[in-house]
Structure formats: structure tokens, C-alpha cells
Amino acid sequence: MQNTLNLEGVEQQSLKEYTEKAYLDYSMYVILDRALPQIGDGLKPVQRRIIYAMSELGLSASSKPKKSARTVGDVIGKFHPHGDSACYEAMVLMAQDFSYRYTIIDGQGNWGSTDDPKSFAAMRYTESRLAPYAKSLLQELGQGTVDWVPNFDGMLNEPVVLPARLPNLLLNGTTGIAVGLSTDVPPHNLREVASALVHLLDEPKAGVAQLMKHIKGPDFPTGGELVSPRADIKEIYTTGGGTLRLRASYKVENGDIIITSLPYQVSGSKVLEQIAAQMRAKKLPQVDDLRDESDHEEPIRLVISKKRGVDVEQLMSHLFSTTSLERTVRVNMNVIDLAGRPRMFNLVDMLTEWLKFRRETVKRRLQHRLQIVTDRLHILDGLLVAYLNIDEVIHIIRTEDAPKPVLMKRFELSDLQAEAILNLRLRNLAKLEEMKIRGEQDELNGERDVLEKTLKSAARLKTLIKKEILEDVETYGDERRTEIVERDAAQALDETQLVASEPVTVILSQRGYARAAKGHDVDPTSLSYKSGDGFLASAQGRSNQLAMFIDSTGRVYSVMAHTLPSARGQGEPLSSRFKPPDGAEFCGAMIGDAGQKYLLASDAGYGFIAKLEDLVSRNKAGKAILRVPAGGKAVVPSLVPRDTECLIAAVSSIGRLLMFEMDELPELAKGKGNKLINIPGKKYQGGEERMIAATVVPEDGDLQVYSGKRMMTVKWDDSEPYYGERALRGALLPRGWRTVDRLVGIKL
Length: 748
Description:
This protein is α+β, with helices and mostly antiparallel strands. 32% of the residues lie in helices and 23% in strands. Strands 16-11-10-19 form a four-stranded mixed β-sheet. β23 and β24 (555-560) form a beta hairpin.
């Protein structure tokens, strides 16, 4: 639909066209006039206006600072009609030495801290002036170097870009979020960047690899370590995007770990909070104490007191992995180029584009100066004529009502020359000396020759640019702050490594209450239990191992042993930690290292050997391991001793005991398993017969058969009556022992 005029003369436009244009206009405004910097001076419009307004207020590095509110008022009143708080915040960032690598503003008062960059005082309390480095942005401003445009109300002019003598964009970096675009340029070291510029001037076809001999990598104001591999840094400089890994720097003093610098934009107090949270959660037993000893002399000094014998590198690797002591920094070098278009730059393109800007700036400066020199020589020619005819000139000035045209006609002067003569006081005119005029002419003629030769010669222009860059390096350059070191990837300590390894006995009651007793010399049957409750199963292991529990449905649940309550109490219900199926009961406990094996079986007489590593589950709902028939349940698991021949003993509810070689039973990760003892299907389904227990009997060991409070021992050598092949019915136990509660295999 085309735009039309109605009878009232009002333009009509479709909603689609209007919204598309409005969104596009807004997007381009955000990209070009707010969020992205210009490559020439590396500044966003608000930053440029702040710096220019401060220079107009006379707030140079050598001047007395003025209230920041005065400056902000000038900025928003003359050049940037937006919010004062946003303007002041942009001003604060340029003054924070932990935000900018080379600060542009010298702030007096509270301008924030690394712990809280936004804790700066209100603008009515702070004072500011330009920092010495700002001179590199403003020094050539009045020398015809840049274009000027009217401000927002057309009353004043402002520069389109500042004539930066250095690539401020790379030195200080920048961040910004536009519409569909964002930028993240990291800061760099001036000496390295200048060295790369000089090399690029000499070798215009130099690639990333050659420039990286000079620019090792970004250099952040807060120091720290850049631990990204060199290949990753090269990839970023080649493509213009990627991520960098930054780490804190530390040293060891008297056994304590001292954090001396933090990654860019990381708060020391936040780091201490993160470490303290791990200590409170008992996930960092290696650390005894934390202190913040930062002061004016050492802005960052975080002290971590570790326990004796703790490996420093291992502990720091854990902290790098789990806290902000290591962070990733995004790099996305989207910048507005000299043509006014946003685009992605790599390192070579960025330096080349800036050198193009600098070459044009220097040319304009030289041409401007050449024009001034030429005009002055022209005026001096007129003054020399006036000197040689001083009496006549004075007479004309005194007697003529309009002396200017008379002088121009009499001495063949230009309008500029005549104006210059008339602007001289008669006293000065009388004192004109030929030698002074001719001396100034000679000096300016020499300067004009140099300027013309420089403008005509690309080599001379290149030498001049190089010379000025090196001069600024001497003025503003400093040592690198961020050390570039290739490190192994940070590795968080496993939970088992964070806990002291102590012998424990895990005890499970009949009602599903669990606890852990220190040591292995514990008699779980002698402990106190809740009324109506009693001992069901136990397992011996270490405090840094996973304790596992199996329920009647065959699901296995795991938890760190050290997190279980002490055996001094009566334990806690496992149902509060896990979410077993409705009606399920906990049937057994297991513990050991990953390779430890257990016998798992159901009361249907089926089972298999399983490794603990296959049973691990971090889910509250557990992991389905043993397949149990409907109406059935799992029996208490039995530990499989290492490196020894074993027998499997299985007993049914009617007192039939079968013992067979363990080799006949398969090793599975999950499933139903194979038949241990023959339980007729009809009897099982009718509830007449079930397998009560199954256990592992080590070679030359004993089998203990428990019936109530009584116990009968079947020695290894006496097991022949019950010995047979897997899946047989087994032999009946003696009368009075056919009601079996549990079986225990004992190694002698």
C-alpha cells in the first residue's frame, strides 16, 4: 500500500510499513549512535561527548577538577539530551582504573571499587577532570583533523569523531549490546599495539601470526592470568570472535594461598562468598579459614588458609573450576568502520583500518597547517610592503575614510593583506622591522617546504606517523599486567576427594532407617533401634565412598557415606532422602569402591553378580537394577570377597539350603539374573515357598544360619550335603532350623 493523502491532507500509511520503518530506525539508532564504538577513536557517542564537553570546560589534566554534576549538566544540556544517571555512569567507567586499561578521566572522591563497581558516590559529591591519556584523543582537535556537525538543537557544533593519536578501541576495549549486534573488544597493552602498528606500517601485508609476535594477547586492567592456549588466541584474532579464559594469580606464603589479582570484572567479596558457601556445605574440608587483607598498598589480597598436607595446585584447580577465580570472557569485535557501517573486524583489519584513519587525520592536520603557513606568508608579504612604505601607509590610514580599498589599489594588496595591516595598531605598524618579517618568512618557508614534501611523499608520511606513535608510547606506555600462561583446564575435585577417608559401617534397620558408625568393629545388632524396629543389614566401607541401598522393587539408591547421620542416634528414614515407589521397602545396604561386587537376588530365587559402579544413581528416584516379579521383593545383598573362590548359599522359606559354585552365576549390570535355587512356580505364586536369603561364602569360611536369636554354623568342609549345581532344590536343614531369618558368610 502506497502512502496517500486523505481529504484533510493527512498522510496515510499502512501499519506494517510504519512499524517496519520505526523498528529499523530505532535499530540503526541503537547500533550507530549508542551501542557500538567508532573505530577511529574507539568511543561511543556519549563517551565522545563527555570528553569533548570536559575539554570545552577547560578540565585538562593540569587544571583544577570540577564537580561531576557540572560536567554532566554541560554534556546533557549541550550535546547529549538523555538521562543524567546514564551519562554519569558512562563517565564513571572511564575513570575506574579497574574498568579501563588507560583511564580517560581523573576522578576525585568515591568512584567505586572492584568489589562493587557501581558503589560510586553521586555526581554532586565527586569531582573530575581529564586524565593525561585524554590528550592523545584531543590534542589535534582544533587543527582541521575532523568533521563537525550541529548538536541536537543546532546551536553548537560537535566533532563527528575525535582525532585519536592511538588506537583507543584496542587499548581500552569496549562492550555494547545493540539490536541484533553486540560488541566485546578486550583491552590491550599500548607498547604491544604500538609495536604491531609500526610493523604493519613497514609490512602492510603482515598477517595475524606476524602481528602476534608483537601483540601477545589482551591485557586486562586487573591483571590475572590469560590461560587460553595460543591457538585459541590466534583463532580469535583471525576471526574476530571467540572466548578467553582468565584466572586469578596466586602465591604461597607460610603455607597460606594468597590471591594477588583477580580476573577482569570479578569481585573479591563474591569469590570469598563462593568459597565460604562450599565450606558451610562441607564440600571443602581442605580449607581452614578465609580472610580479606586487601588495602591501599595491595588492592587484592585474599588469604586462603589450607590444612596441612593439602596439595595447593589440586585445591586451586578445584577453586578455579567452581568459583569466579576463573571466568571466560567473550570476544566479539563488531565495530563501526570508517564508512559508518557496523562490521566484524579481525586483528589485521582493525589495525589496518585504524592506520587508514590515522593517515587521513595526519594528512588533514598537515594540510590545515600548510594553509595557515601559506596564509601567514601571504600576510607577511603585505606587511613587508607596508614596512617599506610605512609613512605613506600611515598617512593613508589617518587621512582616508575608507583606507582599505586605497591600500589595496595603491600597493596591489589582497583583501587579506590589507585587513592584516589595518588590524595592526599604528604604534606596532611604525615599529615593524624588516629583519623580523624576513626571519619569520624564512622560518615559515622552511616549514612549508617540509609540509609539502611530507604530503607528497607516502614514505615521509609513514615515518611521521611512526614517530608520533612512538612518542606517545614513551608518554603513556607501561608494562603488561595480565600474564599469558598456558595452563591445564581446571578440574573440580570429586566429592570423594573432598572427604577424609575413614572406616565406617553403614547400618540399615527393618523400617528403612540408615546411619553410619565409625570403624568396622561395630556390632550393629547391639545398637538401639526405635520401638518396633530392628537390625536388617550392614556394610563396611570408607567415609568417602558411596553408600547404596536397594528397595524391595529392585531399585538402587546412592548417597555419600559421610552424609549419613551418626550411629549415636537411631538414623534417619531413607524415604526422606529418596523417592521410592509406593509400598516399597528398603531391603539392604552396600558400600565399597567402583569395582566391588555384590550378589543381588529376588525372593523368586533369581539373581546375579553386580559391580557397584553399575549401580550408581544420583537421582532421588533411584535406578532400576534387579527385576523383581509382581508380588515379590529383593533380598538382602551379599558382599563378594575379592581374589578368592566362593560358594553361593541360598535358602528357601521351607528350610531348603543349596550351595553351589559362584562361577555358575553371571555378572550383569541389571536384569533378572539366573536361577539360584529352584522354587516351584505354583508354590511361589501361591505364597507357599520363597527364597528367604542368599549369601556368598568365601573359601574355607563358614556359613551362619540365623533362626530367631539362634545361630547354626555350616563349615566349608561340612557343606557337602547341601552342595550341588545351580538351580536345584537343595537339601532340607535339620529339624528346628528350617525357619531361617538370614544367612551370613564368614571368612575365617
